[in-house]
Structure formats: C-alpha cells, structure tokens
Amino acid sequence: MDNKTAPLAGSATPASRGLFVNRFRWVVLFGIVIITVVNYIDRGAISYAADGIIGEYGLDPADWGKVLGFFGYGYMFGALIGGVLADKKGPRWTWTVATLSWSILVMCVVFAGDVGVALAGSALIGFALFRITFGLAEGPAYATVNRTVANWATVKERGFMSAVGLLGTPLGALLTAPVAVGLIALTGSWRWVFIILGLVGLVWLVWWLRIFTNTPEENPRVSAAELAVIRDQSDTLAGETTVDKAARQLKWWNFFQSRTLVCNAIGYFAFMYVNFMILTWTPRYLQAEFGFSLGSLWYLGMIPWIGACFTVLLGGRISDWLRRRTGSLWIARSGFAMGSLALTTLCFCLIPTLDSVAMILLVMAIGNALNSLPNAVYWTVVIDTVPERAGTFGGMTHFIANIAAVAAPTLTGFLVSAHGFSSMFVATAIATGIGVIAMAFVKPGHLSRRLSPAPEAVR
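Below the sequence we write its predicted structure tokens.
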C-alpha cells in the first residue's frame, strides 16, 4: 500500500475489522512472531544437516565452525544496513526486500558446496558465498522489528510488545530441531529442508503485504480508538520520549558518543553469544560427546530452548512491571539485565563440572532461559532513549551484538579442536560476565549530555 494514498485509520467498518477491533497492533505482532520463527529456523537448520554436509564435502570441526560462522559476517552488516533502511524506507519496504531475498538465498544453500568445488575447488568457498549473502539478507529482521514496535507500541507496552516481537528467537530455535530433523527424515535429503523453508517465507510475505502498513495511521484496520491508545503519552516517565515528539537530527556516529547505547550493545552481544553457541554447536556436541543419532536430536535439540520461550515474554512483563513499580528505567532495564546475565554466567560455569547428559541439558536450559529474560530490554533501551532513530540505532546495536554470530560458532570450532567441548561453555560464561559489567553503565532514556536536547525541546 502506497503511503501517500493509504486510507486513514478508522475508515474501515467495524465488521471489516472483526474480532480485532481496537487490537490490530497485536495482529501485526503475531505476524512478526511468525516470520521471526521462520527466520530462526532458516539459519539454524544447517546445524541438523551437519552429518550430511560434513560427510559429503569432507569437512573437519574447524571447517564446520567456519561454515556456521560465515552467516554472521553477512548478518552483522545486514543488521546495520537494515536499521537505516527501516528508518528511511519504512518497515514495510524493508520487510519485503529482506524476506524475499533471504527466502531465495536459503534455497541456494542446497548447491553452495557444489558451486564452490566447481569454481574454486573448495566447498568452503561456495558456502562462504551463499551463507554470507544469506546472513546479509536476514540481518535487517530484528532492527525492522524494533522500528515496527516503535511505530505501533504504546509507551507502557513497549517492554512486553518488544518481548512478543522477539518471541520468535527462542520459539524458532525450539522448533528448528523437530522441523529440520523431520524434513530430513521425510524427504531423505538435507537439501529439501532449505527449499521448503524458502517457500514458507515467500508465502508469509504474500500475506504480510496484504495486512501491514508502516504506521497505524495508514492502516484502515486500525480504529480511531486504538490509534488514540497507541499515541497516548500520559504514562511517559521522566527520561522517556515517544516517536511523536520533536525528532533529533542524529547521525549514525552519534551512537558511539552514547555510553548507554554502546554498553547496551555489548550486553546484547553477551545474549547473542549464548544463542549462537547453543544454536550452532549443541547438535554436534550431543552427537560427538554422547553418541546420539540424528533421529534423537529432534527432541534433544529442543530442550535448551523450552524455558526461553516463556522467559522472553515473562521478561518483558517483569521489565514493564518494574518500570511502573519503581519509576526507574535503570532498575527496569539495566538492573534486570545484570541480574539475569549474572545467573546465566553461573549456569555455564557449572556445565563443565557435570557428567550426566540430562543434567547438562537441564542446566543449559536454565541458563538459556535466564539469558532470555532480558531479551527485550536491549531493544527497549533504544526505544526508551531514541525512538525516532529506533531503526538505525537498533540496527547498529544489532550489528555489534551479532559479532557473536561469527565469534561464537567460529571460536567454538577452534576451542573444540584444541581443548574439547567443555571449553565452549567456559567461553560462554566469560561472554555473559562481560555483559553484566557492560549493563551496569547503561542509563536508559539518557543519550548523552552532549546530544540530549533541552527539556523544553522534547515536551
């Protein structure tokens, strides 16, 4: 729908809005959850195709770590570019280009190794080409989620709506195992997994373009009453701003002048390190250390993510509750994240001391659940602080955080080769410990003294 000719909010009849009258923003968030689930399954499915790919192309653990890490190189820059595009072109345009691109590129993975062998005599070259470009296409997703939430969320619902938008991370990771293993078993080939997943993304995009607009003001399914709720500013705390207030003409480099934004990104890096370590290496760890077959991984691979599916939503509620209860954004965002990351660190320090696979998976699941509690915080801090630049600065936050998309799988490959699997848990604990320290310096709602406008400029 063209923004210039879009019908005004409230122009649709109540019957056409149906059950979701005054609640259409939740339909938008439901659509985001669906595509982020697909997004996560797309990137994680390759971990369950490991035996087929490694056997076919003769890769060792270090090579396999590189294959898994290639995605992260593109993903970092895709997040950075996507955030800028979401602000400049709007989330609708960015969702369209990104989803179309990654759905096609995930299907291209089926011949990546063969292309590398044919062109350069190395399957790694082919996987580098297609996994990097696939990561570049998937990169804009979460910055665009943040731009969408900034446009559609009420002030008091920011934490929870960000959490709902991010539910696709643990839910997608949870479903990756049964979906990937099931499709391999059903089709008899690892290649069909990627073809089917690409088609699912294209189907979602057709539906999304029928119902989504950049802002609620443009959408005929949004009633005047719901629009008034979304734009209500009466619950704003000191230090918070809304997307309707006078925009500050900030440049991309101003991000690095803000201690709050930089340290928040480092905290998010710690969260992402845990995610990518578990997502990419747990299947191989269970097979190599405990001898589990691929058929067993459909349920074992789900265990580390079960708790996280609940805590990502619970964390958003807790953060919003702390905000209302204490009136302090620091307690609700930074303090909450520090406590969660500290407990996560303890869990991953404990894992190398355990011998039972059941206990290891239990502690890993608890650690991952605790890690996911403040998932929404990292994005909400950006909205709390600079809502008018939520896409650009959210993308920069995601760029820094997704250094973990390269570091976690690649470093783990080298550590496993040199020191065994226990070393990957120690490295994870170090990463989350750094996150605890970083979040102590995050002051949500305060960009920096140099960049913050006078109070009357944002009233």
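The mean pLDDT is 85.
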